[in-house]
Amino acid sequence: MNGSHEGLPPDNLRGNLSRDNLSPDHLSPDNLSGDNSSAQSRPSLAEVALVFLKLGTIAFGGPAAHIAMMEDEFVRRRRWLTEADFLDRLALANLIPGPSSTELAIFIGYSKRGWAGLLVAGCCFIVPAAILVALIAAFYVKFGALPQVAGILYGIKPAVIAIIAQALWSLGRKAVKTWRVAVIGMAAVVLNAAGVSPLLVLVTAGMVSVVAFWISTKSRPAASVLAIGWPMRPLWLVGTAAASMVVAIPVSMFRLFLSFCKIGAVVFGSGYVLLAFLRAEFIEHLHWITERQLIDAVAVGQFTPGPVFTTATFIGYVVAGWRGAGVATIAIFLPGFVFVAVSGRMLTRLRRSALAVAVLDGVVAGSLALMAVVAWQLGRAAIVDWVTLAIMVTSAALLLGFRMNSAWIIFGAAVVGWLVGR
Description:
- With 422 residues, the chain is mainly α.
- The protein has helices spanning 45-58, 63-77, 83-95, 100-143, 150-175, 179-193, 198-217, 221-243, 253-266, 271-285, 291-303, 311-343, 346-351, 354-382, 386-402, 406-420.
- It has a domain at 38-241 and 339-420.
- The protein is built from 16 helices and no strands.
């Protein structure tokens, strides 16, 4: 990376990008971004484990809601990260394949406790949901139907919308500091709402930001692109290798592992993108499950807390019981750990390049736009009457006015939904 590139990094996301903040003392896992404020708190591994176990237990609503809860927990409440640090890690998590909110959790654990934190944060965020999904799958296999949870979801969904909206407001105020970033964000909203894939939206946002940077600094495009693209090359090599490992392997636990490992290594985007990969692999190719079982698996991944990718746990159990559930869960999340481990030190290298900062600005704007579209889509389905509207408004007031922990808001909304009964 060229740290002396003409044109200073824009000040819209990173206020501490001077050379003084890029000394070797600031390149530890505690402070990958070069910002001292994010390294003042060094939690114990036990504290990291407990907070991610909590989030893995109460983080309903999909990736956008998970990101919102992490922002509330680690930026606003615990102050483990600054908003700029959080946005940087979110941008990088969106640039690599796999479940973005889980990879964000892994990045946060790594930034606070190094390699041990990477493993502890990721596993503790995944395990509660995986256990719950496996238990539901056991019920499903035995009785042939899913347990009734409609009332609880009726209350939780509008509260999740309020949590996402609060995070968008908080992160957006920090991220959107120039008209260029605002325009990129609005264009990303339009593209995603028009049906453009999330990955293409992020790539487009990053490239538009790069073009704007080239125009303003008159820099050399080819050399700059190579400087940024080369560190990403190992990630795509790993993904390509994982994708090619499942050729001509007989049906077995090993094949189950490789199939989910391939999916975890190449899937970008939401749970609906995951649905397309699961259908192609397990219905059309392997013929291991039915259409009804796949729909039920995705539904379980949507209404349980934690990562949506625990859909794999459900399918694994349906195919091969408890052993299959464990194998499928490990396989689909393993690529995410590998990608984060490979790219963990990349953030410091990217921060040394003014052009890379411009790329991250665009990707952050695109990421927030995707969150906004998801919030709108979920909101249309969640706000269906005056009760759900009241839950959303009350949740927003408690978050913004009283800074209440989102866990209590989720719990209260679940109780209200259960009492109202739907």
